[in-house]
Amino acid sequence: MKFNIPTAEAKALVEEVGPLLDGPVAATIEEHRRDSKNKPSLEPDGSLAEHVRHLKRSVHRLGAEAGLYAPHVSRTLGGRGSSLRACMYLHEEVFLRGFGGQQWMLGWTDGPSPMVEVATERAIREFVGPLMRAEITTAFAQTEPEAGSDATSMSTVARRSGADWLLTGHKHIITNAPFAEILQVVARTDDGKFGVFLVPEDTPGFSRGPIQQTIMDDGQTGSLTFEDCRIPLDMMLGEPEEKFGVPMRWVNWTKARRAGMCVGLARHCLDRALDYSREREAFGRPIGSFEQVALQISEAYRRTWATRAACDRLLEEIDAADPWEKPNAGTRADFAAIKLMAEECLMEAADVAVQVFGGLGLLKSTGLEHIYRVARNLRIPGGTSEMQRREIARSLGLLRAG
Ligand SMILES: Cc1cc2nc3c(=O)[nH]c(=O)nc-3n(C[C@H](O)[C@H](O)[C@H](O)COP(=O)(O)OP(=O)(O)OC[C@H]3O[C@@H](n4cnc5c(N)ncnc54)[C@H](O)[C@@H]3O)c2cc1C
After folding, report:
1. Could you tell me the CA-to-CA distances from 62 to 71, 145, 388 in Å, in that order?
2. Nearest to residue 337, comparing CAs of 259, 263, 261, 260?
3. Would you say 249 and 114 are in contact if contact means Cβ atoms under 8 Å apart?
4. In contact, 353 and 270? CB cutoff 8 Å
5. pLDDT tens track for 215-265
6. pLDDT per residue over 71-87, tens digit each?
7. How far is residue 83's CA from residue 218's CA, in Å, rounded to a whole number?
8. Exposure check for the chain: N or C terminus, fewer CB within 10 A?
9. Which residues, 6+ apart, have CB-to-CB distance to 60 below 8 Å?
10. Among 380, 392, 400, which is best to mutate for testing ligand 1, by the most ligand atoms less than 8 A from CB?
């Protein structure tokens, strides 16, 4: 199968990232591997160990120094204004190498999203600048115990108090909640609008809950509590709005990111399965010569190839629309379709790779079961698969709002 890169913009990003990954990023990871032999990756409280966090920060910074941490962000804020379509190929190139730590050179859930484009001047100075330089990380805190898919039913509230907001509420299952230096908190204002409030970690009334360990066992998810946290009026991303506009920028960016991530990881899994099927022998023959093994691999490649082509087309359409300010039903459905297809593609590829590797596929040391667990996870955060199908059905006029 041919995995061509269709545009000059995407090719340039891919050509630029290769030497960074193979040079400074690989050297930093290798040095960490040598220094951290036999050290556990989690602290006794279940959080990601300090030595791994140190590696993660170092790799973030290598990405930021090279201008490849958040190229989707506008030039005025320190990005490159790269198209989503080109970013897909950058992400694919990074994730083709699996989860070796190199993926941290990309700004992800804990980095800059398109919400930064509507930051106030103060927020640009105190939040966006340090975030773009990877001096700090963030978290996107929307989900609550009683408000997940139905996010607009949230009970976290921001009340006006003189020149400040007073923020009160509780969020859970938030990525990077244990570590984020400044949090992006979605709350309802006392006049019924929705806004994104910036909460520095030293704000009185703010506290973090214990680690909520997920299927990924990575010590990076937790809960957050805000008790009358005083937030200056201009520490916001955008203005409070009746519609759920600014948070949807983050959610839709998450969906778009699935394309390159899932296709890259799927190709990583399948390339490894293919190599293994040629070298591993059973009954005196390479296992790849058994039709059942060959067809599993070839079917998963077919799907990966098709998913990659479809995501490319959809991202091209999204780039040509106005995806952040007021995405129409068609654009929202495009984002939803990308999320669904990309996750299903990775789920199949990871499952096939584990199966082809047999017992070795389930060993932690092989690294494939990790990808399988991540693949299973992806179908819930950023909006469940059911919510994506609902979005597509709605764009066809099939479901009523609500
Ligand atoms: C590892 C991980 C990281 C996460 N990170 C973040 C984060 O950084 N920030 C953040 O804000 N949140 C985060 N989340 C939370 C995540 O976004 C929510 O779990 C998700 O949106 C679903 O909400 P819920 O868990 O409340 O499930 P519910 O909304 O209660 O849904 C339960 C089930 O009902 C289905 N369902 C609900 N409504 C409908 C409907 N109308 N039609 C059909 N089916 C429906 C759902 O699809 C699901 O299968 C994370 C979750 C995980 C697991």
Report:
1. 13, 36, 34
2. 259
3. yes
4. yes
5. 999 999 999 999 999 999 999 999 999 999 999 999 999 999 999 999 999
6. 999 999 999 999 999 99
7. 31
8. C
9. 69, 104, 105, 107, 111, 134, 137
10. 380
